[in-house]
Write a structure and sequence with these properties.
Largest sheet: 6 strands, mixed
Order of helices and strands: EHEHEEEHHEHEHEEHHHEHHEHEEH
Distance between the termini: 12 Å
Low-confidence stretches: none
Number of strands: 13
CATH superfamily of the largest domain: Glycerate kinase, domain 2
Structural class: alpha/beta
Number of helices: 13
Number of domains: 2
CATH class of the largest domain: Alpha Beta
Mean pLDDT: 94
Helix content: 25-40%
């Protein structure tokens, strides 16, 4: 029997590639004569470009840069020299996963380190940047990236405004282009359909998750309105809000003022690049999973999109998940993982054990 193992990350507990290995090892322990292929998936969320780089066999380039609060951190990107394309995850160095709860503050958090990775990739020959937007710590409209690429942000006296300060966005009065023009384009991968503005926009929905007190939402929105007006005046045109601009604190919204940019639905883009239809066609059974499959999953998450492909190719698809939002989802079988005590110091070990046990209990009838 041929099994394609294609889980998403089990957020907060297991990365997608680790989960895939656990599933494969458990399957072969129970059925040593079966054939397995591991292709961990992503949908624009945290780690998408990492998995793309691994799946495509690309060269990993390491750089020391700054995290979301301006501290030194080792980052990386993947480079495809042939197509002059770099794959960069915002979460690699500008991710919320690097911050403790008390450190989260979107007034301070910046994408500058991600911009440093992009700048390094340009120097290495890239002119197309694939940017995975998931897992960011900031709501800075991509200003940090722009600063790292040479854009200047000045106060009312024409002095550079200090990065990583809680007054950075509020003090900006003028924007300067880099001395040398930058000829790059962006493909931005996301797993959400939120616009930047509106009740379901970046600030009211994701701001509190990144440390913004709810009573500060109006003043933060006002600050972002002012910045976007400055960006529009600089390029002498208004860039309309669109689906996906709410991802990662509006990074794509800011970048779109200066660069050719296209929003991409992460899962479908990922599947096209790794040849997912052919791999599903090879398999007799597909196993996927994610930390919590719920009503948001049908908005473009990896497991849901993989299910749609399996249905199209008439292949059974098994889901491994926690929660109870999978009713009516049409999976061939759902393996429900026990709840975890995230206050326990060994919850990740328990998560690995629960996943392995679920596979040993899997039936394929």
């Amino acid at each position: 029997m041929k099994i394609l193992i294609a889980p998403n990350a089990f957020k907060g507990t297991l990365e997608a590639d680790e989960a895939a290995k656990i599933i494969s090892d458990a399957l072969l322990e129970k059925h040593p004569d079966w054939e397995t292929k591991c292709l961990p998936i992503a949908d624009g969320g945290d780690g998408t470009c990492y998995l793309l780089g691994k799946a495509l066999g690309l060269e990993e380039k390491e750089e020391w840069v700054l995290d979301a609060l301006g501290r030194s951190i080792k980052g990386y990107y993947y480079l495809d020299q042939k197509s002059q394309t770099a794959f960069v995850d915002v979460s690699t160095v500008s991710g919320i996963k690097h911050l403790s709860n008390p450190e989260r503050n979107p007034w301070v958090a910046s994408t500058y380190g991600t911009g440093q990775l992009i700048q390094a990739s340009i120097k290495a020959g890239a002119n197309h940047i694939v940017l995975g937007l998931g897992g960011s710590a900031s709501v800075d409209l991509g200003l940090g990236i722009l600063a790292a690429l040479g854009f200047g942000f000045l106060d009312e006296k024409g002095r550079a405004v200090a990065m990583f300060s809680d007054s950075f966005m509020q003090r900006i009065q003028y924007i300067q282009h880099p001395i040398q023009s930058i000829n790059i384009r962006f493909s931005c991968l996301c797993d959400v359909a939120n616009t930047f503005w509106g009740k379901a926009g970046a600030i009211p929905v994701f701001g509190p998750q990144k440390g913004l007190p709810r009573h500060e939402i109006p003043v933060f929105e006002s600050s972002c309105h002012r910045i976007l007006n400055l960006l529009s005046k600089k390029v002498r045109k208004e860039i309309p809000d669109q689906v996906g601009f709410g991802a990662a604190g509006g990074i794509a919204f800011g970048l779109a003022h200066f660069f050719e940019l296209k929003m991409e639905r992460g899962a479908q883009w990922f599947f096209s690049k790794v040849g997912m239809p052919e791999k599903v066609g090879w398999a007799d059974l597909v196993i996927t999973g994610e930390g919590k499959y719920d009503e948001q999953s049908a908005g473009g998450k990896g497991s849901y999109e993989l299910l749609q492909l399996c249905k199209k190719l008439d292949k059974p698809c098994v889901l491994i998940t926690a929660g109870d939002g999978f009713e009516g989802s049409a999976f061939h079988q759902v393996m429900v993982l026990p709840d975890l005590d995230f206050l326990s110091p060994d919850f990740r070990k328990k998560a690995r054990e629960n996943l392995r046990r679920s596979i040993l209990e899997l039936t394929t009838d």
